[in-house]
Specification:
mainly alpha, 3% strand, single chain, 2 strands, 10 helices, elongated, two-stranded antiparallel ribbon
């Protein structure tokens, strides 16, 4: 999980750097130096269409942060269970259901070599992180995922709005990815101040969800609490 958290902070730094640059361009505290035909540099403000395009691109960066963070966090749960050599019989019913669902969708030809001790290896043998999410990560998806695994999805609403802005990020990302809207169109729908607010709330929400998952792992809440564990 520490690797996931470090990767999250690294990506957040990249996002923040982009937003500092974007804000400067939009508010004209940062300008472009354009080389003229005569070799001289001309300082100019950003073109309005380019500004809208760069604002739209901010949604792609934020969505990348959201999906990569959640995928890494779920991988960390499986890694933790595997490293602790937790057996199938010992995990909570929610995890059992996930394992069975993963396992039944795999071809025996692809997983038989991964299984040495079925009570242990069945948990990770059918897991494929690439199948976790596919452009669909918003608050609802994270809440459903939390319920599936048994970790908390509660956050401080005053700082996160409980992740309600993740839907806006996801929708804009999908509109851009599927060509439903142009970059200037998406970028023109949201002010720089609103995008900055969305960014802060999304980052805070993800950070608190990661802390919830860390607590879940620390307290071994993936275990079945109806049985006694050594």
């Amino acid at each position: 999980m520490q690797t996931v958290i470090l990767d999250f902070h690294s990506r957040v730094q990249e996002v923040n750097q982009y937003f500092v640059f974007l804000e400067g361009l939009i508010q004209e505290t940062t300008k472009l130096a354009v080389m003229e035909d005569n070799g001289e540099q001309k300082i100019t403000a950003i073109d309005s269409d380019l500004g809208r395009t760069l604002k739209a691109n901010a949604f792609l960066l934020l969505y990348n942060l959201i999906e990569s963070t959640m995928r890494g966090a779920i991988e960390a749960i499986f890694d933790e269970i595997s490293s602790k050599k937790v057996s199938f019989d010992s995990v909570r019913i929610e995890i059992k259901k996930i394992v069975i669902h993963n396992f039944k969708n795999r071809s025996p030809d692809n997983i038989h070599s991964k299984i040495k001790d079925i009570s242990l290896d069945i948990i990770t043998a059918g897991f494929n992180s690439r199948e976790l999410f596919s452009g669909n990560v918003d608050r609802e998806e994270i809440t459903n995922t939390a319920r599936k695994y048994g970790f908390s999805f509660h956050t401080d609403y005053s700082k996160t709005k409980h992740g309600e802005n993740l839907y806006i990020v996801m929708k804009n990302r999908n509109d851009l990815a599927h060509g439903n809207k142009s970059f200037p169109e998406v970028g023109g729908e949201t002010s720089i101040n609103d995008i900055l607010k969305i960014k802060e709330e999304v980052i805070e929400y993800l950070q608190q969800i990661l802390q919830n998952i860390q607590d879940y792992l620390d307290k071994q809440e993936y275990l079945d609490n109806s049985i006694e564990h050594p």
